Records
---
Amino acid sequence: MSITEVQFQATAVQDAPAQAIEGRSQWQLTWRRLRNDNVAVISVVVIGLVILFALAAPLIAHATGHGVDVAFPNTGEDASGQPVGPGTHGFLLGTDEIGRDLLVRIAYGARISLFVGILTTAIATVAGVSIGLIAGYFGGLVDTFLARVIDAALAFPFIVLALALAAVFHPSLAIVIGVITFFSWAGISRIVRGQTLSLKEKEYIEAARSIGAGPWRIMFIDILPNLLGPVLVLATLYIPTAVTFEATLSFLGIGIPEPAPSWGNILGEAQSFYQTSWWYVVFPAAALLITTLAFNLLGDGIRDAMDPRTERIFAGSKASRRKRGKRRGQAGQDADLGMGLVVPAGGEG
Amino acid sequence: MARFLFRRILTGILEPVTAQYWHFLTNLVQGNLGKSFFLQEPVTTVIKQDLPPTISVVIGGMALWLIAGLSVGILSATRARSFFDRFATVGVLAGISAPTFVVGELLIIFVFVQLNDHGISFIQTGYTAITADPVGWLGAMILPWITLAIVQAAVYTRLSRGSLLDTMGEDYIRTARSKGISERRVLFRHAVRSALTPVVSQLGIDIGALLGGVLVVEVVFGLQGLGQETITSISQGDQPVVIGFVILASLFVVVANIIVDMSYAALDPRVRIT
């Protein structure tokens, strides 16, 4: 490149029409990318609809005139006492084996699933973040102790503990929430601890300490905001995991006790009726699948939106023609957010 | 006899806890796990009865999910960001989202019930011993295998894709290419081998955990395996069986992890100690 070329380029830059250059924060960038991600937008809409469906459960019960625990032996069962199919006698999704409206029960089941999913994730996130921060920041004996507790919690067989608890106490919503929370916080803790270990060596933490900031201020005001990204992604991915756990426990009869409807215990009951009543299995299963898939897709979308290295998987084919070798070179130039996240697995076989 | 048993039980309870534990340990070393409270059988007999269904499900399912997971993972990684890759990504998420029992029940409705309604009775639920009827065994196992494969393959696809993409960027792959080796040989002889390391460690965890009882699959397909027996004995408070099963499950986890550790060296020359 000759000197004149450089000069030409320099003037060209100066001559370019004055464009307002806007600084965008990381969150603004993430938000913009997320909005352009069709799959994430659709997921949000679906999640919104499921939440609306759950909130509207009493309205649905009112509109259909079918209470959640009210059996309709005359209209809701056929002559031989079997469940009736979708659309019969005003039962839009059919009935279960004692003639209760499946639509109303699935709507009320959505309340329990979302409540358990969101509440356990919230508790687990707060607990996991606090414990991870404390372990990572203080280090030493505190860390050794807490890290072992985290390992122990991760090593516990999930269903066996739930079974044992359900055998000693009676199955209840509280036990379900307790068990799922107990198995969720440790994964978050481990990641937060790892991130804290590296973040606390950064210069700005040293600067904070030198102006006299205490450990709690540093942990929660200086370090925590830098962890919010990965934690948000993890939390979004833990919600479907918790929903699945709740459904699995209820399916096995050690979760939400009857007659309260949960997608899991409806499916557990439906097990004896798959020969005759497909709707009894298919509709609650679809509700469960749609909900967990939407949360998982949203979580993946948020992660992609936060990670500057991600090429837009669903946004056009330009990226797909790029040669394989280029990927690494590009990755090196962008900032690494440290988003090597562990996705929680979907539960035990 | 009754009086003798009564005295045995009484002395057993009256002994100090440490002595009871010592008895338990000496019996354990001799392969005696005690007697079930409810079944009036030694725990080892219960284990022998319940092991075949569980092992059949896990081993067959593993073969299926490894074939599916690895081939999709390798194809996705070598064609990164292609249409196939995108399609696989969504498929993987669907697999991860799907609870095991939902997959199982849907398979029962759409495969088992449909086929049997149309007079094809090859696929059945429940367990048929392989020694008694190999064909019946296969028919009974196919749906559990597919269920397990759908749920598990997703994790393996994601794992092998990510790991292989990282490995393909390593310097030694470039060196191998520059030697003029064919791309296929680079992929299978050099890249896939070391990319399998995280896959194998995940496999160790899964196999160990699943052999302890593929609980949900067993419940859905009515297989009387370790998982179902665990549920029954916990709810009945049958402690010798529970303890025996927990010990067995731990044994599976430990053995699976030892095998995994040994296979690292076979897969990746960089891990070899000598």
Note: The CA atoms of residues 109 and 233 of chain B lie 29 Å apart.
---
Amino acid sequence: MHGRRDEFRQVALPHLGELVRVATRVLRDRHAAEDVVQETYLQAWRSFGTFQTGTNCRAWLYTIMFRVIGRARRKAQQVPQVDLDHAPSSALLVETPPVDSLARDHLLAAVDGLPDAYRAVLLLADVEQLKYREIADVLDVPLGTVMSRLSRARDQLRHAVAERTTPRVVSIRS
Amino acid sequence: MTLTPFTGPECHEIRAHLDSYLSGELLVETTESVHSHLTRCAACRAERDRREALRARLRETLTEPLDTAALEQRIVAALTVPRRAWLPPLAWTSAAAAVLVAAALWRAASTGPAGPAGPAGGQPAAVGSPAPQAIATPAPARAVDLTLYQDTAISHTYCALKRPMPEKPPTRAVAAEQLEDYGGLVAVLNEDMAGHLLVDAHICPNGDRRYAHLIYQKSGHTSSIFVSAKLDGGLPPDDERLPGPGIDVHQRWEGAFAIAAVESDDYVGLIVQDAGQSDASLPAMTIARDLSAYLKGLGARR
């Protein structure tokens, strides 16, 4: 029993920091994030018997964590009211502004301003560097949904960052 | 912002693929096409560099180290609570059987076949409790939920004690609504809980469990009442028993909490209070009686 617990601690606990980081940005609340991550680890420990040693523990933990977040949101009735996956893309293409002068707080505000579903895929792809397929599994959505959400998330982030820096060249999509 | 066209239609196409190119997520042919364009187009190369820089800045900003030592300690402590789920099914069956057999043997050794008693010995038999079975002809093994008390204590800790309560306590009607299919619980419980104020009512998930959770406060003490469908079995047979009003009330100390519990065939109800709460206790026996009637009603509805 202790051997299994030690194994769990060895493979799962090293991901604690990044889970807290992602949960904090997804929920925009460190306290709530810690509760979610703690529940994630308790659930992971319960189902550790089903985890195959040598497979991707990090993605497995993310999968559990986003289920916990989903349940918490449903409980708080914070489900998105708008079908973001079928929302039209922005007609504006904005060039990415230089980030040298971008203040940290402005960047965080730009990320926090993204819709929840977009923020989650952006964090998993561009910060935690999960593959698109892994993100689809973690969020339990089709691969195409991940790609379209990512595209919109990156577009919106560029727009938000551009508004906080020097205006750059923009075009209207034909 | 200034609106101007990009250098050409091909740039539009390339820029739509640029992020996936940076992530290494494009097919080989598309990667080659983007790469080829970038060698010819200075504007798109500059855009690629800016996107790379933005991504790097994002990673740098959002991967700053966090102090998670306290959280890690809490998690490690919680992991020491014995769990059932990671025992393989056969081992679980054996473990449950072992508990049942051990409990039966212990009872037989401490009280003889004349009647049941709690582990403390000398406790009066609960009214309505089943007659003891002879060891030689045991009753069919009853599944026992070994983690019910721990899970309930954890839910009380993290849901009732750690989370901020709503600014305004719910009315009984609102509480009933918030408890969804367990809404009838509110009507069954007495409105006057010896001065305890109902401060929150909600459906509370904990792993596979789904609790109806009522939270009461009085004099700085917080207490919980939970109702849940049985997941893995009933209350352990070796609990202490309280002399209930025509019902079998189980009792167990779980860490700093005193938990009283009643069950029906399909449901369990639990009252959780902290150990030092004698001056501000919920009327546990009255609640247990009401809970028991409510659980039987739930069972009849199924």
Note: Residues 89-111 of chain B form the longest helix (23 residues).
